[in-house]
Write a structure and sequence with these properties.
With about 425 residues, the protein is of the alpha+beta class. It is about 50% helix and about 10% strand. Strand 7 and strand 8 form a beta hairpin. It binds nickel (II) ion.
Length: about 425
Amino acid sequence: MSNGNRQLKEEKVFKDPVHRYIHVRDELIWDLIGTKEVQRLRRIRQLGTTFLTFHGAEHTRFNHSLGVYEIMRRIIDVFADRPHWNDRDRLLCLAAAVLHDVGHGPFSHSFEKVFGSDHEEWTRQIVLGDTEVNEVLRRMGDHFPQEVSDVIEKTHSNKLVVSMISSQIDADRMDYLQRDAFYTGVSYGHFDMERILRVMRPTEDQAVIKYTGMHAIEDYIMSRYQMYWQVYFHPVTRSAEVILSKVLRRVQHLYESNYQFKLYPSHFTGFFDGSISLEQYLKVDESVVMFYFQMWQDEEDPILQDLCQRFMNRRLFKYVEFDQHFIMNQWNDLQELFRQADIDPDYYLVIDFSSDLPYDFYRPGEEEERVPIHLLRPDGKLRELSRESELVEAISGKKRTDQKVYFPQDLLETPGHEQEKQRIKEILLG
Ligand code: NI
C-alpha cells in the first residue's frame, strides 16, 4: 500500500455531545469527511421516524459516523504495540468507520421494505464507484477502496479488523447505543465505555475482552436490551413507519395508474422500477422526502392526501396487540368490514411484526454472522460471554416477537357506515 496519507499540520477537533471531542489527525480522514457523499449523511436521521416518538431524536447518520470513527480511533490507541495488532491497518479501520453507513438513504428501513433497495449495496457503490469518496480512498493505492469495502461487508481476510467494526461489541454499536440514549433522553443505553476500551484486547481473529471486564460488558448488554425494547421497537415509531411505508406504496400505485400528480414524484420513479442510478440515489435525502410529503398533503387523491397529512401532523395510527391465532381467524372479516365502511384496508389495516426490525440485543450463535463476545481468561483461554455470565445467559437468544395491528381509530368515529365501524371496533378494541 502506498502511503497517500499525510498528517494534518494541526489536529482538527469536532465538538460532540457524546464523546466530548472527536480528533482528526489524518488528512485522508479529514478529506473523507469532507466528501459530498459523507456530508449528505447530515440530512439523514440516525433513527428514522423515532423523532415522532422522542422529539430529541433528530441526530443524523453524520453524527453517528463521526462517533464510530472516534471510538475506532480510541480502540486503536489501546491496541497499539500489542501482539496481533498491525499499525498498517489503522487507516483501513478508520476509513471503514467513517464510511460504514454511507449508503443509507432517507428512512432506510421503510424504503428498503417497500422498494427492496439495499443500503449495503449502495455503500459498496459509493466506495467503489465514481465518487468523491472513491477518489480520496484511491490515494492510498488502487486496492484501498476494495479493502475498505471488504471490511464494511465483513468479507475482509483480516477478521480482527472486521470484528472492530461489526461484531457483538464493536465501534458501531458502542456509538449508537450511547448516542441514541443521549438524543432520545432515555435513562437506558449508558455503560462504561472507557472501562470496556481499557479491557479490550486484539487476538488473531477478533477483539476480545479481558475477564476482569465482564461486569462492564454485562452493563453494555443490558443497555442494549433496554434500548431495543424502549426505543428501537417503540410502537409509536412503528406506527409512523407504517404510515410512511403506505405513502410510498400509494405514490407508486398512483404513478403506475398514470394519476395526474400536482407534484410529480420525479425523485422516486427510479425506486418504483428499480432503475435508480447512484447519482439519483444520492440526491434523495430526508429533506427531499419531507418536501414531497409536505406538498402531497394537497393532492387530489384522498388516500395520498390523508396519509401525508397524518405523517406531517403526527396523526398516527392506533395499535393493538394481537396473537397470531386471532389474526388468522378474523383477518378476512376485518378486511371486508373495512371495505364496507369505505376505508381501504390495503392502506388502513396493517399488521406489523417487531421481528422485522433490524436490531438485536445478544444472540450468540444464531443466524447472525457477527462474532459473539469472548472473554479472555487469565489462563489465556477464550470463553463465550453467555457461558460465563448468568445475567447475559438469562436474556440472550430469546426472541420476543410481538405483532401489532395498526389502524386509524379516528376514521372509525366519523359519520357513515356506523354499523360496520361498530363491528370493527368490537373486534379490534374488544
Ligand atoms: Ni452504524
